[in-house]
Design goal:
- The complex is a heterodimer of chains A (200) and B (400).
- Chain A has 200 residues and is an alpha+beta fold.
- Chain A has helices spanning 8-19, 110-122, 182-195; strands spanning 28-30, 36-37, 43-45, 51-53, 62-66, 74-81, 85-86, 100-101, 128-137, 140-150, 156-166, 169-178, 198-199.
- Chain A has one domain: Protein Transport Mog1p, Chain A, CATH 3.40.1000.10.
- In chain A, 20% of the residues lie in helices and 36% in strands.
- An 8-stranded antiparallel β-sheet of chain A has the order 1-4-5-6-12-11-10-9, with helices on both faces. A 3-stranded antiparallel β-sheet of chain A has the order 2-3-13. In chain A, strands 7-8 form a two-stranded antiparallel sheet.
- In chain A, strand 10 (140-150) and strand 11 (156-166) form a beta hairpin.
- In chain A, 46% of the residues are buried.
- The model of chain A is unreliable at 1-5 and 16-23 (pLDDT under 50).
- Chain B contains 18 helices and 3 strands.
- In chain B, strand 2 and strand 3 (107-111) form a beta hairpin.
- Classes of the chains: A alpha+beta (200), B mainly alpha (400).
- Chains A and B meet through helix 2, strand 9 and strand 10 of A and helix 16 and helix 18 of B.
Chain lengths: 200, 400
Amino acid sequence: MTRIKTSLATTLLAAPLLITAGPALAHKLHKQGEAAAVAESSLTVTPSRDWNQLSARIGKNTETWTLDGEQLNDVTFFGGIEPGRPLVKERSRKREPLPKFTTSTLLPEVPELLERTSRAYKGSGSFQVTSVEPTRFLDSDGVFFSYEFTDEDQLTRKGEARAAIIGGKLYLITFEAPRLSYFGKVVAEFRALADTARLR
Amino acid sequence: MRLPAAVLAVLVASLSGESVRAEQAPLPPPYAGAYQPHGIDEIGAWREDDESERKLAASNLVIRDERLTAYVKKVLCDTVGPDRCNSVRVYIMREPTFNASMSPNGTMRVLSGLFLRVHNEAELGGILGHEFAHFEKRHLLERFKSARRGTDLVAWAAVLASIAPTYDTQRTYQDLELSVYGNLYRYKRDQEREADVLGIGYLNRSHLRPQGFAQVWQNVMAEIQASVRVRGLSKPNFNAIAFTASHPPEAERAAYLGELADAGASAREDGSDRYAQALAPWLPVFLDDQIKLNDFGASEYLIQSLAQSGWTAWLWQARGELYRGRGTPRDLVNAAAFYANAIGLDPTLADAYRGLGLSLIKTGHASEGQNALRKYLQFKPNASDAKLIAMMIPKEATEK
């Protein structure tokens, strides 16, 4: 039992950070009030406070922001996941395939997609979706859901996400932080950030 | 010359070949009673282990079900005997992997994935007895010492080789290094074989059918084959031993465990009824964990093997979830049929109506799908996604 499981983004971020030394290695600061296009897409947010963007990506059309480091608070944008693609990059397409977003995926299945992705990636059995509500997101019908999971570091984390399927593509923003102290402390900042999300 | 002699002994022992000579397994030795650690290495290991157990006891991954834990403990006691099993604390962890482990101070961790892969007390007892044998033989301590001896030898050899830096010395040093590392892995595999022999010894002496232990490995091989077949990978070789393999290959274990089992005991009971009863509340949960791992072949194999004792509503429901999760058009048609089967056996199974409704909508049967979703809300008005599903019904109706 040597694997340490943390948030999906953390798990995925750790490896490329050590190995790749591409030009995009530098982290980036997003200043308060400056609109920023995220996740290589037309998804745009306008932060109401300074946020850090981490350089590594956990998959195509994703981007991760944090305040104190991704293990303590992790905002991940999924900007237009195309049908037939997984949410995050697969370790091995053949040996460890991840569930895919498809043209027939329905809104109530989006929380399942995130749950199955997280469980399959970490080999874990602890991910529970705790609530699912309809919402408006990016001026479309969307889904707002919250969840909870415990990784092998024995720390239980809470998560909150909103998603919409627009033009056949999946737009999703997730926030994950330890249930102990950190989630409650930063969730309002996350909501303020996610409320500013627009498609340009 | 204590150091090289010890290593030499390991090397010579390893040259004699890697296998278990199969007759019937010997009966376990008399039990020495509550064991206390001796020597600085063991005392240190136990102290670290006590700390780790303290953390484990508070972990959110532990399944706190007294009845299930007591049942697993009872199967362990039935296998190894009441005198031995008192030194063990059992922790069942929510992790959908086939494994269990035992640490030096008597902490046994059983992962929830194990319960899908054994079908009776004899099979479960085989695995638990094997883990207990590691504890009784104090394998972890021996392995620590063997690793220290081996790496000491390599370190000293590096110093000596640097005194005479010729190509020959360099080559000899590299050979020695490779051989020592290879032997560390081999040593671990031999410990596993020893634990298998002692484990089957416990079963031979118990009231359970010892042939169950070999069956576990037959099942594991069948599951791996089912998994790789669906993924389009080549069939694994169950006899090959990799340089760094931690365990003997599955085929070898199945073969020698079959031979070591007491042939006269094959008519004994295996406790499958008691097992099914004790696990009844948990198997649907563990199967759901398995299905969400996105390993279609293995999950389908496990569902089929659970269904051998009869299809139930939750098994059909699980199969529906599996097929809907993969989600190709043909899967969705199958999924709808499986959910319908589940509803046929249990007309109040709310989640089956949800799966049926979503599958039907996705295959173009919107109005039938909405009817199923209405039933879902009727049976489970407080479902966590009730509002979202409720929104789908009128909306889909106006669209189509």
